[in-house]
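Z., the sequence and structure:
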Amino acid sequence: MVRLNLLLTMILVVCALAVVSARHQARKLFVELQAEQEQARNMDIEWGRLQLEISTWLMHNRVEEVARTRLMMAVPAPGQIYVLSGARP
């Protein structure tokens, strides 16, 4: 009977250690998951910033395209350009 109790106690200790180890591993993985989710949120924010920057850079090209197509505007020839001096005597 004593041997059976000792064997059951050893099994209980091993099971308890396995539970503690599994919980520790689960918490560790949860912390890693949170860190990865934070990094994903930061990347989403950066993606939004980059999209905004792209739209800003493309704005000039869009204005130039509309000026050329709809308004029939063109860059003047070098002979048509006059440079005015801002200096007053």
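The CA atoms of residues 51 and 57 lie 10 Å apart. The two ends are 117 Å apart (CA to CA).

Let me know what you think.
H.
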